[in-house]
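S.,

Sequence below, as promised.
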Amino acid sequence: MLSKLVTREQAVEYVQNGSRLMHGGFGTIGSPALLIDTILQKGVHSLTLIGIDTGYPQVGIGKLISHRRVRHLITTHIGSNPEAGQQMMDGELEVTFYSQGILAEKIRAGGVGIPGIVVDANMGGERTGGGEPVIVAGRPCLIEPAITAEVGIVYAKQADTYGNLVYDKTARNLNPLVAMASDITIAEVEEIVPVGELDPEKIVTPGIFVDWIVTRSGGSL
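The prediction came back faster than expected:
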């Protein structure tokens, strides 16, 4: 069985100008920091960025926004990153907000091949996605289209060389859904082991969803 382990530079070759880039992590927890830095160093721009939040101005995914590499942001909140808010107010950054549960479900639907989800049209909070209205069981609802991405970057505690992933507690967050909903999934992991050494009961993301693996140390097995 061939190993999916590559260098971080090889992995981010798939991130191009204008790419739809989906990421795991919430704040700094479960965020693929090494891959984010490598994408930043590559110099790509005009990205569509999809994830729960925008991190912090100089930490995590927020670096891409602070350096103005993002054109369109699809997220749930930006409160921890004043730079994102300023760019939105200045008209430099297009932002589409969803509630966290709806965004996660839209990504999950994309990962399993469902074209859309049905949500209550009377839910509180602003959604700028503009779903198609429909009546379900006598209730006004909206059909929200599923979300996918060209490239997804995720973080995991452990992986084997095939790409089976084990997450660390809450660092799991959105990462498994991102891995499913991306055409190319790149996993940043702390530890990599030979196939067969991971406890199958602890594997959350099967290797079939992972295309490439990089280690935070930059080393190889």
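The chain is about 20% helix and 30% strand.

Coffee later?
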